[in-house]
Write a structure and sequence with these properties.
With about 200 residues, this protein is an all-alpha fold. It has one domain. It has eight helices and no strands. The longest helix is centred in the C-terminal third of the chain and has 27 residues. The protein is globular, with a radius of gyration of 18 Å.
């Protein structure tokens, strides 16, 4: 029975890592701009954000008004637009990407952390998918709960790292491909920002 919970944790962690979203678009942007060494710290952003998310979702969030999530969505949308603009500036001044200013590891981690916690993804994910699984494992034994979290985050972070490494290989595919992928990351980030903002305003 424990193996079933652990297998579920690994599967969900892998799925969360490969599912396209703002965090994955940010991985692409930073991997192209700075290479895997500077982008890799961003893979650990969920470890920085999910502790308060898990606490609030499992203990507090259900008691908060619906406006809390909407405000979070709008704030996250604004920050995603900032990240899209940052990627667009790198696209416009692409000739300086390799030799100019590139965010260091701590900066990429900070921005990825903010993007993650300001988006509705982690909140909805833990309230609807992973939260109930964690509670079931914890109800059997706290050690089961700890094992579930360890397996989930091992799979999640490892998947993020592999994605960043794969994205970084595009740096060897020529300037034209890299510039195109950077532009794609701009549109993806902007698209998520618009969609998230409209949801926060209850238009969608």
């Amino acid at each position: 029975m424990l193996f079933t919970y652990l297998l579920k944790a690994v599967t969900i962690g892998f799925s969360a890592g490969i599912t396209p979203g703002p965090l994955q678009a940010l991985f692409l942007s930073y991997a192209i701009k700075g290479g895997w060494r500077k982008a890799l710290p961003a893979a650990f952003a969920p470890l920085m954000t999910d502790a308060p998310v898990i606490f609030l979702v499992l203990i507090v969030l259900n008691r908060l008004p619906d406006g809390f999530i909407r405000a979070l969505q709008i704030g996250g949308a604004v920050f995603l637009l900032y990240l899209a603009w940052d990627a667009f500036r790198s696209f416009r001044h692409y000739q300086n990407v390799d030799g100019g200013e590139v965010p260091n590891g701590w900066q990429t981690l900070l921005k990825a952390t903010l993007a993650n916690i300001l988006g509705p993804g982690p909140w909805l994910f833990w309230s609807m998918i992973n939260g109930p699984n964690l509670l079931k494992a914890w109800a059997i034994s706290p050690w089961w709960g700890v094992a579930y979290l360890a397996c989930f985050y091992s799979a999640f972070v490892l998947t993020n790292m592999v994605l960043i490494m794969l994205f970084a290989t595009t740096r060897q595919m020529g300037d034209r491909v890299r510039k195109m992928l950077l532009l794609i990351s701009v549109f993806v980030l902007a698209g998520f920002a618009i969609y998230q903002g409209l949801q926060g305003l209850m238009i969608l």
